[in-house]
TrEMBL record:
Its EC number is 2.1.3.15. It is an enzyme of class 2 (transferase). Residues 1-128 form the CoA carboxyltransferase C-terminal domain. It comes from Actinomadura bangladeshensis. This is acetyl-CoA carboxytransferase. One of its GO terms (molecular function) is zinc ion binding. The lineage of its organism: Bacteria, Bacillati, Actinomycetota, Actinomycetes, Streptosporangiales.
Length: 145
């Protein structure tokens, strides 16, 4: 984020993206890869089905930043990540993610195999996917921890 981004209307675009995805009449699928933080990352989340790479996480504020705010040091980022519930397993447990895509041990170490697993997960996720509609999408994220 920057002053230029804010002056350029980033917040409004994030809000429009969220509104568009929540109200979209077509079925939607989201695949979380890597580290997502901030409004722009969260704006791409609302979907009928959400898949996440095993090492992915999603947060309104990176755990390091949250640690600095709460503890005045970034050294407690792991503790903050657990408290925020931002890791893929947390997202799955909380009903934000529907399935995880395995990484052995990390997608960067096995890109082709990971891409095959991700493609298979997307294919399975799209199979039988029907739009749930705005009310169901909103309810899904309201009930999340």
């Amino acid at each position: 984020l920057s002053a230029e981004a804010e002056e350029g209307g980033l917040a409004g675009e994030i809000a429009r993206c969220l509104a568009d995805l929540i109200t979209l009449p077509a079925p939607t699928l989201c695949l979380l890869l890597g580290e997502g933080a901030g409004g722009a990352a969260l704006a791409l989340l609302p979907a009928d089905r959400v898949l996440a790479a095993r090492h992915a996480w999603l947060s309104p504020l990176p755990p390091e930043g949250a640690s600095v705010i709460v503890h005045r040091t970034s050294s407690r980022a792991d503790e903050m990540a657990a408290a925020q519930g931002v890791r893929s397993a947390d997202l799955l447990r909380g009903g934000i993610a529907d399935a995880l895509v395995a990484e052995h041990p990390d997608a960067a170490d096995e890109p082709e195999a990971f891409c095959r697993r991700a493609a298979a997960a997307i294919e399975a996720g799209l199979s039988g996917l029907a739009p749930t509609g705005p009310a169901a999408r909103q309810a899904r994220y309201r009930r999340a921890p």
